[in-house]
Amino acid sequence: MGIPVGAVAQETEELPVTLKADSYQFDRQARIITARGHVILSVRDVTVRADTLVADLQTGLVTAEGSVQLEVAGQSVAAEMLTFNLSTRVGTLFNARTEYHSPLILGSVRLRAEELQGDLARFVTIRNGFTTTCEEPEPVAYATADELQVYPNDKIVGHHVSLWIAGHRLFTVPYFIISLRERRGGNFSPVIGYGDTEGWFVKTSWSYFVNENHYGFVHADWYERLGVGAGIEHLYRSAGGEGSVLVYGLANRQTGGTDLHDFLNHLQRLGDVTLRTFVDYQDLSSSTGSPTTNLFATLDLSTQTQQSSTYLFSTLFESSASPVSTLNSQFAHLQNFGPRLGAEVFLNYDQIGDPTGVDQELLPRITLRYFGDGVAATLVTDTRWDLDGTHSTADDKYILERLPELNVTVSPFRIGETPLYAQAVVGLAQFRETTPGPTGGVLDAGRVDAQVTVSGFTALAGGSVGMRTFARQSWYTTGDARVFYGGRLEYARSIGAGVDTGFGYTAQTTIGVSPFIFDQIAGTLSLADGQITYHTQDLLLRATGFYDFQSGLFGDVIGQVIYLPRPDLSVGLAGSYNPNVGQLDRVEAALDLQVSKEWRFEYSGAWDSFTQSVITNRLSLTRTFCECLAMSVTYLGARQEIWLEAWLTAVPWGRGKIGLG
C-alpha cells in the first residue's frame, strides 16, 4: 500500500514526500509518519528503504532500521540503522557498506564502516573503516583505518591506515590518500631500483593531511651515487583557486653541493577569467664553482563568451649558465560577428636578451573569415615590427609577411550527372620574404593563384575506383609563373572470401618556378603501390609495397600478421623486405598470452639485419591473486633493466617497484 504524494505534501510544501509500505500511520497533528514492512520513502533525489521507519516532517528527521538502503543523488549506502535529516541531507549510518567509482579505478572502491556520517554527495566521515578494491567477503588485499574522509569525485583520506595482505598486517601509516580524479598519491611501499646515473636507489612517498583544502606528500629518497634527497609536495585550494607547491633538495654527492628544485603550479578563476601559472626554479650549488640558477615560468590567461574567446600565454626562461634569456607572449582574440563573419587578432611578442643587447619584436596577424552560400573567403595580414629599433644577431632570421593574402574557396559541387565533384580556390597576395645570410635579402612581390580539384569514386568491374586530380597555376609580379598538377587513382576489390586487394598510382609534377622560398614544391613524383589483405574472424594477413618510377626502385615490402584465436591470446608479427637487394631488413614480434586465470606472459622484440641481433624490448610474467592483487617480473631490453612490481588490479598505475638495471 502507499500514500499518494498529496496526502503528505499538502501539509508541507518544503518536503514533498512519497511513501510505500506494508503498513503505516500518519499523525497529522505531529506530522510524524511511522511505517513498517518494505518501506520506501522518497523526497526529491533522496530515497530511504528499510524494514521500519519513522519520519518527522516538521524537523525533517528520519530514523530507520533493518535492511536500510539510503540513496542520495545516485550514491547508495546499505546499513543496519540510519538517522537522516531530509532538510540538511546529513545523516549517520551504522554498520554501513557502500562503493565509490572513479575513471582512474577499474571497478570500484568498497567501503565498510561501523559508523558513516555526512552528506553522501559532498563529504562523508567513516569511523573504524575498511576499504578494498578486491571482491568480498574475504579480499586478499585491503586497508583498515581509524577514520576515512571521503570527498566524492575527489579523494579518500585515511587516518592511521594499515595495509593487510592475506589477513596479515604489513604496516601502518599515519595518513594515506587515494585520488579519485587524478593519478596522484602516496606509496604504501618504497620504489627500489638501480640506474646508470643513480646507482642503487630507494624512493619513498608518504601522505599527510591538514584538511580538505590542504594536504600533500613528503618525499625521502636515497641514491647510491647522487646522495640523499628530501622534499615536500603540498596541494591546496582557496577561494576560486587551487594548485600545488613542490620543494625538493638533494645533497649531491658528485658535485659536493646542494641541488634545490622548486615547482609552483596554480589555477585561479576570477569570474569569467581563468589564470594558470607554472614556475620551475633550480638552484644548483657546487663545492668547486659558483652556483647555477635556472628559471622557467609560464602564465596563461583565458576567457570565453558565446561569441568570443581571448587568451594570453607567456613563457620566460633565464639561466645563470647562459648569457641568453627569452620572453615570449602570445595574445589572441577570436570574435564571431554572426554565423557568416568572424575575425581573429593574434599578437606574438618575442624578447631575446644577450650580451650584445635586447632584441624585441612584435608579430601581429589579423584574419577575417566569411562563410557564404557555396563560397568562403579568408583575408590574412601579418607583418613584423622591430620594437628595439636596432639591429642585433637575433634579427638575422627568416621572416615571411603577408601584406595581405586573400583566398576565396568555392564549395565542392557535382559535375553534371557524373560521380565527380569539383572545388576551386582563387588566391591573391602580396608577400615580403626576408632571407638571412650573405646570399639572402628581401623579396617583396605579389602572387595570383588558381587551383581546381576534381575527385570522386564509382563502382567498376566488381570493385570501386576513386580518383583525385588537381591543377594549380601561380603568377608572380616578378614575371615568374608555375603550374603544379597531379593526382591519385585508386582501385579496390574483393577477390575471394576474406581476400581484399588495392592498387594505387600517385603522380605530380611542376612546370616553372616560384621566386619565394616558402612557396617551393617538391618536383616530379610517380609512385605505384599495392596492398593485399586476408582476414578471418581471428586472423589478419596483410602485405604492402610500392614502386618508384623516378628512381626505378621498389620500396620495402611490409608484411603484417595479427592472430587472435581467443580472448586470452594475441600474436603479432611484422617484417620489412628490401626487394632491391633481396634482404630481410627487420622482423618484429609481439605475444600476449593469458596462460591461466592467474598467469599472464607478454613478449615484444625485434630482429634487425643491420646489427644481426635480436632485441628483446619487453619480457614480462605476471601472477594475479584472487583477481585483485598482481605481481610481475619484467625485463626491459633497451634499458637492460629488470623490475619486480606489485599492484592492485583496480589501480594498475599505482605500482610498487623494485628494479635492477
Description:
The chain has one helix and 44 strands. The longest helix is centred in the first third of the chain and has 5 residues, at 5-9. With 661 residues, the protein is an all-beta fold. The protein is 1% helix and 71% strand. The model is unreliable at 1-13 (pLDDT under 50). Among the domains are: 1-89, lipopolysaccharide transport protein A fold (Sandwich), CATH 2.60.450; 103-184, Lipopolysaccharide (LPS) transport protein A like domain (lipopolysaccharide transport protein A fold, Sandwich), CATH 2.60.450.10; 189-320; 558-661. The N and C termini lie far apart (71 Å). The strands form two sheets. It has a 31-stranded antiparallel β-sheet that branches.
Sheet/helix structural class: mainly beta
Q: Helix tally?
A: 1
Strand content: over 45%
How much is the average pLDDT?
89
Contiguous uncertain segments of 5+ residues: 1-13
* Helical coverage, percent range: under 10%
Shape: globular
Rg, rounded, reads 35 Å
Number of strands: 44
Distance between the termini: 71 Å
Main sheet attributes: strand count, strand direction, barrel closure: 31 strands, antiparallel
InterPro entries: LptD (IPR050218)
Protein name: LPS-assembly protein LptD
Organism: Candidatus Segetimicrobium genomatis
